[in-house]
Amino acid sequence: MKEKITRQLALAIVLLATVLISVSAYFIYSTKDDIKQQNKQYLSEIAVQNAEVIKNTVRMELDKIEAIANIIGSREKFDVDYALAVLKAESKRHSFKRLAYVPSDGNAVTTDDVSFNVLGRSYYKKALAGESNVSDRLTDKIGGNFINVYAVPLYHKGHIYGVIIATKDTNVLSELLKHNSFDGEGFSYIITKDGSPVVNTVHKNSLSSFDNLFDSMRKNHVDENLIAELKRNMALNKGGIFENDMSDVPKVLAYSSVGINDWFVISVVPKQVIAQNADRLINRNVTSAVITVIVMGALIFFIVVQNYKNRRKLEQLAYVDSITGGNNFNKFKLLAAEMIARNKGKNLYMIRIDIDNFKLLNDMYGFREGDEILVGINQLLSRMDSGRDLHARLSDDNFIWLVNCLTEEEAVSKIRQFNDAFQGTMSQDQKGYKLGFTFGAYKIHPKNMDVDKIIDRAAMAHQSAKLLHADPKVVFYDEKIRNDAIRIKTIENMMYDALANREFVVYLQPKYNVSTSTIEGAEALVRWVRDGKVIPPSEFISIFERNGFIVNMDMYVLEEVCRLQRKWLDMGLNPVPISINQSKSLVYSKDYVDKLYGVITRYDLPARLIEVELLETIIHDNVTELISIIRQLRRIGLLICIDDFGSGYSSLNMLKDFDVDVLKIDREFLNNAEISERAKYVLAQIITLAKGLKMIVVTEGVETEKQAGLLKELECDTAQGFFYARPMPCEQFEKLLSVPGGTRTFESSREDQLNHELT
């Protein structure tokens, strides 16, 4: 009986084991097919993603070239030399192999002095017909490398005036396809619909080279029906996936249209790679039949983990920031679009954040410290999000933050909460420095739910916030910011042509001897006259200082003043020194002193006729370098003036360090001295101190007779202001110099100016 029970139990165990093994086998084989399908789907997603990357990259390159064409075509008169100069500059900036302007005869004018004709090239014909495009793979006549040619139409006054072409190595596109998919076993091509290669690969599992993919498939005995289906789908711009045995290695291919020309991305992985995880599970299950239940659980767990890892690998490539480990900008845009749509654009603010002077932090403490700061910011934002908000690192030290807030006040409170929490962490970690932040915020409206436009408007507010002096710096977008951005862009579009067309006009404001009321000098000021209207300096000087064009402006004014002084000397007049303002960007530029000396020498001027005005605020930026610059300027004979003395947080100590000729006192000193005996005493002591240091003292902003009398009482040397004379055209100032004896009292100057204004 016992033996019977034992036999029955053994039979039951065998049957149970058989059932369990069968179920396990069935489950594993089913799972294997699922894994294969998922991996195929992932491969298809890689192909689609690669196609999108290629498309966006080509579009960005065309956008760059169209922008270059717009710069060239926007001039009033088309100039090939100017076009070539622009192309050479942009070629270096954008790492093009070459840039060229091609007129209607097809003869290219290139940046590397190579001559060729592109009249028969299809890319040239398309661009000449108004279509920006990129060529298929071509062989460079110079060097023999594979290249792609980007071509855009060049418009001038509404008409196509030729074509701008740019050449880049095809390797640039090839690099975009190099990603470590399927543990390095996957690779990608780009081909045309007819099978011709656009971008090849040197991957170990790929065809080393081919002239036509379809021909190579036939040579490798791929089923003709598969080839026909592939061609048919490509003709319809459809993607797909199929298996084949090319090069005696079974592979899975996924293909997707790029959307440019007739290009398709082909992403490939050996079939064995897709199947190997599932095969390993089956072998493990067979060898572990006695513990089938445990193995089944382990296999299920392993499958889930593998599935998760594969998905994580793909997401890591597309959606994870390499420094913070959080969402990157691509993932943020996807999630932000969903969140905005879900909230219907209500009660949401897009905030752009960046760290002030982050590059300086990297220079002083190293990139590792900078990366730790970025990670810390990401972690703080994660703690603050609480599942209701989104954030990501945008680029460098820029973060983007989408927050749920009912009001602007609540958004400001959230910003301050972030700032205070971060500063608290810095203090707790005993960092030896402090970081400030700039925030630009935009309140999302239901009528504007486009993520890119929303981010752009937050960026515009962020740009305005950079001009503030606060901690933290916070600005919310409004129409004024938009209008200011349009105004700035308009001015920047006009400024180079305005300089070339001499629209910037130099005015001179006389300086008078306080005791004798005779002219001792003048200050050169600039007015922008366009279409008969005067654009005041307040509208453009700050813009030029931000974009660097102020350097061009300063050199232009120097040139104009030297030309005037040379003219007056040739006329036999007795010109007086004219002061010119020098921006920080110019003063600290390379070869600054040589540039000034070159202009003055060209006009054969006595150097003492030019007075260089240095704003007090730039003196503290680099004292050692500025002392050296001043010594060089004095060595060539120029007069040096410290302008706006007293406008900043300066110390009288600076007067002992800087050997200058003129000290120009800020108008606020004079205004305060009128109403305060204490301020009057301070002004008197500054004048006395400066004279003791052999400096000429100039006070600007003199507007009343009472102020002029006060300066005379304090024995100030020279005065400048509306009481004596307003800024005047150079022709009017020339009349003052023409008075016999070479001097002119300010009373006569004011009378002449009044007559000039009345006429």
TrEMBL record:
The keyword Coiled coil does not apply. Residues 346-479 form the GGDEF domain. Residues 488-741 form the EAL domain. InterPro entries: Cyclic-di-GMP_PDE-like, dCache_1, EAL_dom, EAL_sf, GGDEF_dom, Nucleotide_cyclase, Rev_trsase/Diguanyl_cyclase. The chain crosses the membrane at residues 286-305. Keywords: Cell membrane, Membrane, Transmembrane, Transmembrane helix. One of its GO terms (cellular component) is plasma membrane. Its main location: membrane. It comes from the Bacteria. The lineage of its organism: Bacteria, Pseudomonadati, Pseudomonadota, Betaproteobacteria, Burkholderiales. It comes from Oxalobacter formigenes OXCC13. It is found in: Cell membrane. This is Diguanylate cyclase (GGDEF) domain protein. GO terms for molecular function: cyclic-guanylate-specific phosphodiesterase activity. PANTHER family: CYCLIC DI-GMP PHOSPHODIESTERASE PDEF, OXYGEN SENSOR PROTEIN DOSP.
